[in-house]
Automatic annotation (TrEMBL):
Quaternary data: Homodimer.
Protein family (similarity comment): Belongs to the diaminopimelate epimerase family.
Protein name: Diaminopimelate epimerase
SUPFAM superfamilies: Diaminopimelate epimerase-like
GO cellular-component term (any): cytosol
Species per Swiss-Prot/TrEMBL record: Methylophaga nitratireducenticrescens
Name of the gene: dapF
EC numbers for this chain: 5.1.1.7
Length: 282
């Protein structure tokens, strides 16, 4: 049997698997099956907890989207990861160092149950996003169909993000523009797409169409990317409350040379087991 936990951060839900104390080798097909909400367990992403080979790093954190593709970063998942390793006795620390495919992050479990995560520094170079464009800029015009362009910010928070400023997230064309921008040829690794509504200097509303998962109730790196883009546009302060469909995240970016900090909840839902015989006979 393969043991797992179901967790969520503001409704962005995860299957979390301890790959330290059990042998885990999952195929893309098996991950897709487990993520399926009709015939599997159901999740936006599957998270693997592994040992890290890096010095002074506690764990390795691997993330797989519902389509089975491995990605570099997931902010809501990072909070759930930190809660999982502490609650399951894999560490006694309140602050841990976690290896991801895009670098080391530093989640901190707070006394009130919230988890604060040093998400690292944002990256703006088109090569680092990656985004195929001639010159770096704060915003870009992107052709989404013949005769139609949208203005986006493009940056990396360890994974690629495009952020659009909209008048009202309720009526924003997330389902229409999300997949068009996600799969746009100028984003060779695809992209997460954020639709940001400015409320005031310290508050925004946000919906995110995530690559490989479609729209989710919350996206931690998407919240970070939106706030950073708003600061660079000159419309946001350095500490912002981000209201997503699943709830609120607090994002701060102290200055241009600092990491972005994200604070929010991480909830355990249930523990379960799935038979390897089921997974091996798909």
């Amino acid at each position: 049997m393969l043991k797992f936990s179901k967790m969520h951060g503001l409704g962005n839900d995860f299957v979390v698997i301890d790959a330290i104390n059990q042998s885990v080798q999952l195929t893309t097909e098996q991950i897709r099956f487990m993520a399926d909400r009709h015939i599997g367990i159901g999740c936006d992403q599957l998270l693997l907890v592994e040992n890290s080979d890096l010095k002074d790093v506690d764990f390795r954190y691997r993330i797989f989207n519902a389509d089975g593709g491995e990605v570099s970063q997931c902010g809501n998942g990072a909070r759930c990861f930190a809660r999982y390793v502490r609650d399951n006795g894999l560490t006694t620390k309140d602050s841990i160092a976690v290896e991801t495919a895009s670098g080391v992050i530093y989640p901190i479990l707070q006394a009130d149950g919230q988890v604060c995560v040093d998400m690292g520094k944002p990256r703006f170079s088109p090569e680092q996003v990656p985004f195929n464009v001639a010159e770096q800029s704060n915003t870009y015009m992107l052709a989404v169909e013949p005769g139609r362009q949208v203005e986006i910010a493009a940056l990396s928070m360890g994974n690629p993000h495009a952020v659009l400023l909209v008048d009202d997230v309720t009526t924003a064309p997330v389902g229409e523009l999300g997949p068009k921008i996600e799969n746009h040829q100028q984003f060779p690794e695809r992209v997460n797409v954020g639709f940001m509504q400015l409320v005031d200097h310290e508050h925004i509303k946000l919906r995110v169409y995530e690559r490989g998962s479609a729209e989710t109730t919350a996206c931690g790196t998407g919240a970070c990317a939106a706030v950073v883009s708003g600061i660079r546009r000159g419309i946001l302060g350095r500490q912002v409350s981000v209201l997503l469909p699943g709830g609120t995240l607090e994002i701060s970016w102290p200055d241009e040379n600092s990491s972005v900090w994200m604070t929010g909840p991480a909830q355990h839902v249930f523990d379960g087991e799935i038979a390897w015989a089921t997974l091996n006979n798909l």
